[in-house]
Structures are given as structure tokens and as C-alpha cells.
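Can you give me the bound-state structure? Components:
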Amino acid sequence: MNDVSRRHTDRASDANADADADADADADSNALACRVYKRLGDFDLDVSLAVPASGVTALFGQSGSGKTSLLRLIAGLDRPDGGYVRLGERTLSDIQQKIHVPIHRRQLGIVFQEARLFPHYRVRGNLTYGMPPAARSRFDDLVELLGIESLLERLPGTLSGGEARRVAIGRALLTQPRILLMDEPLTGLDGERKQELLRYLVRLTREIDIPVVYVSHDTAEIVAIADHLALIEQGRLAAHGPLDELMMRLDLTDRLGGFDATTRLSAKVVDHDHRYSLTRVTLDDGQTLRIPAVGQPPGTSIRLSVGVRDVALAHAMPQGTSYRNGLDTTIEAIEPSPQEPSANEVRLIFGRQRLRARLTRQACDEMQLEVGDTIVALIRSVAFDSRL
Amino acid sequence: MLFESIALSDAEWQAITLSLKIAGSAVGWILLPGIAVAWLLARHEFRGKALLDGLLHLPLVLPPVVVGYLLLLSLGRNGWLGQWLYQGFGLSLPFTWQGAAIAGGVMAFPLLVRAVRLSLEAVDPKLEAAAGTLGANRWRVLFTITLPLAIPGLLTGTVLAFARALSEFGATITFASNIPGETRTLPLALYTLIQTPGKEAAAARLCVLSIVIAMLSLMASEWLARRARQRLEERDR
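Here's the bound-state model for the whole set.
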């Protein structure tokens, strides 16, 4: 027990040093830096976190790990027992200095698990409730981006779950916040509506220029939306960094996707093959992939994900195969899979991007795979997910 | 014939208008303090909350005569508050219609607070928190979220308090006495007639009038509350 708690403390103080450094670098931006301590039921929340001034930072962890509590401390809905919260140069909470800015003066946008729309205001009234005059010019654009133009005169009780959430997101953004906090905004929606709202969210987070903190316990959501990740376990920060890097950490496989772990790739659209509904994309080292057709025009940057179980390896590109894609890569690491005794997790590198594959140990041995080998990664076109 | 004429006599009109004036004033002066106390009880935790809650409910369980006597003790010319009012402002409340309005208000206060408190407690605090995250301070939250959503209860409480003040007898006769044209409200006029031999028919007329007024205010209350609820539900659907 002692051992465990000491390790946690070490981790927290390491992260603290990081947080301080990042905070200095982004002193006058919307970067968020916090070091908060609070007693929760059966464990303590003790986290130092730096949220970069742009992009989506996911607070990720199981239910009860403390991620929502952390969000509430940042928001000022709860008061920490110790520590501070700073947004850019502004101190929002500092227990030592006895500072606790009340929530209505924090300039934060918050989206809760439930939409929490005001039942006695129409959608338009809800959207403009906290809108300063300066944000009026953004109203039309945001309403269009969220696809809620036709709902403006409706009362909240008449909206579907997904519509209500979109209105709630618009309402929060129209207050011109310096940072947007979202607490599992997809909770309680069924599959179809969840995907729909997720697509809106992904589009939205690329349009807005403020940082977003996104609480979730769903890996697929995180992979779709997050740029950075803070992994929260038992009230501590277990890992923290750019999501693409963390997804390459074989030791985090259990936490980030497990059986369904994936790799994210950035690519640029080259051209479309309308006859077969395929799109050709290029990766940063110039290699190309064929993926199911996407809507974006040539030249657009897109994000792809591919499951670690959908990548096969070969010493050379085989002839007469249904695999449409073969990437020349180098093996960077091979480790036994933490959850599947028959498998190895293999990390491949090409250009500046990395790709993961899960192979049986038997295949690895028979092919005599070694770190540093050049190898062809075979990926079926249909295995790519570019909807996100 | 029990009733010689359907038309109301001057004395009857006087009793009715006086009753409405006194009950209206009673509700008028307790409305804001009532909402404030209900809000305090519904949304805040503080030391002595149970004691305050108990004190508020006293008029409901005490004999009204006791309340009237206590009012006389405190607000009479020799009472601690009455003395100050009389010497400082030349105000004397006993034996005046204002005094009757105070007695009616005190008796109606717990009913008003109860109804308003229940409806305030039914307002989801999460909506209030959401308003806070949108930059609204506590007053804006109160006036744009809490009170509008509590309107059905506010209406019910107001009508209930009005009806209670209208029917007030014991505290009124003790504190404000039974002065024709000043404090002789419907219940007091009825009582006076019952005490007078040969006035049975007049008493019966006042009795019917009381029933009619009570029914009308109950129906008005139902109608208002239903309308308010419908409007909120329309918005909810």
C-alpha cells in the first residue's frame, strides 16, 4: 500500500513540474494549468495537469476514477481542498491565496451530461441566455455549424436527445468562453444519435479556437475527437501527452482500447476513384493508401483510424492478394500483448508516423521478426475508418 | 320568504369590500417576505433553520386568539414594537383595518411559505447551476430561472393566503376588535348577526355570501394554477 501511494506521489510531482513549465510557456494564452487536491469518498484526487491552449484534451478514465470531479474543480462547481487552477495568466482558484472566482465570472463554457436547457425559454432564448453583444455576429455561423437552424423557435421539451445536446453546446459556446469543458456529452444517446453528435463535435472542435477539455470513458470517442490525453486512475494522473504518442505506448494497450486498440494516421486526400468509390490519400513520407471514399476535396487533411488487428505483416508485398495497401515500414518494438496471451503487440515506424499491429506470437517467431527489420504492413482498404 | 331582496344591503357591501381590502392588503404585505423566506428555506442550509421553520408554522397550530393576543402585546400602544411605532411615527395598529390586515397576514403567512417553498424545491438546481455557468449571477438566476419555474406554486400560495386572510376571525377580533366599517369583516359581521336575536335571515345571507366568495377564490386558484402549469408543460413537451 505504501509502495503504491509513493509511486503515485512521484508521478504527481513529475507531472507537476511539466504543468509549471507548460504554464510559463503559454502565460498569456488560454492554456489551463492546475494542481488540485480534494478528498473524495474512498480516495484522494491529486492531479497536476497542463491543458494546451488549443486542441481537445481528453480526461480519460473509468467511472469513479475522478475525472468528472477534476472537471468540476476546474469549472469552479466544487472547491478544491488545496492547490490552484489557472487559465492563462488568470488565477481561478488558489487555496493558499484564498482565491475562488465564482463560476459566473470564470468565462468557461460547460456542457453537462444532460443538456440542462431551460424549459421556459425557446431554443433561441436558451442560446442567447449568456450571449454578450460581442458574440452576436457568431450566432448564425454557430447555429448552422450545429445544424439547429430549424429548431430556433421550438421549446426544449420538443427536442430529441441529440438536438438538445447540440443546443446546449451552442449555448455554452455563445457565452464566448475562454475554454470549453465537456462532461461526457454523449452519455445516454443511442448508437446512431451518438455517432451523429460525435461528428458534429469533431467538426466543431476543429472550427473553434479555444481549448476543449473533454471527459469520457469511451476509447472510440477519444480516438475520434482528442488531440491530447490525460489518463486518470484512482484520482491520479497515470499518463499525459499527445494522444497519438500515448496510443503507441504498448504498456497502455489495456487502458486505451484493449482488444479494439487502434492507430490514428494523418493523411492528405490526393484524388477520388468514383467508379470504385475509393479515395487515394498520401501520408507524410509520400506513401499512399486507398481507403473507402471520403467527401473531402483533394488537398484536405484527414484523420484515419485502423484497428491493430487489421494490420498484417509480410516480408514483401505479396502477388495476387486482396490487400490494397502495403506500407514500407520498420519494426520499432515487439512486446507480448498485455491482455492476449497468444499475441504480440508490434510497433512500426514510417516517416514520422507510427502504426501498430497485433500478431500471433507464432507468426512473429516463424517470420523471425526483429526490431529494426524493414517489413511491409498490409492493410485492407475497408479496414480504414475515416468518418471521424 | 327568507330573503326579502336579492340585492345586497349597505352593511353587507361594507363587510364584503372591507373583507376584500383587508385580505388583499394582508397578502400584499406578506408576499415578498413570504417568497424570501420560502427561498431561504428551500435553497439554503443555515443554523437555526429548524427553529425558523417551527416558528413559521406556529400560527397554523396555535389558537388564533393566542396569535391575536400576542399581536396586541407586541403591537399595542404599550407593546415593545407598538410603542416605538406610536411614539416615532404616530402609528397605532390595534382597532384599525391595517391592524386587521396584519392579523390576517400573520395567519396566512405559513400557508404562503409552504406552497412557495414546495414549488421552489421542485425547481431543478441543475438548471440554476447551468445558468451560473452561462454567466448569470445569483439574482439573475433567481429572476430568470427559479421564480418563473415556480410560478404555479406562487399562484396557489397567493390564493390560499388570500382565502385564509379573508376567513380570519380569532386573531382579528382579538387584535383589531369588531368595529363596523373599520374591522368588521364578513366573518365578524356574521358573528355579530348570530349574536343578535331576530337576525337569523341576515346571518344566513352572509353565510351564503361567504360560501360564494370562498368558492370563487378556490375556482380562481385552480384556474390560474392549471393555466400556469399548462404553459410550463407546453414548454416542456
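A couple of observations. Chain A has two domains: 2-258, 262-383. The interface with chain B takes residues 75, 77, 102-105, 107-110, 112, 114, 116, 118-120, 129-130, 132, 155-158, 171-172, 175 of chain A (CB under 8 Å).
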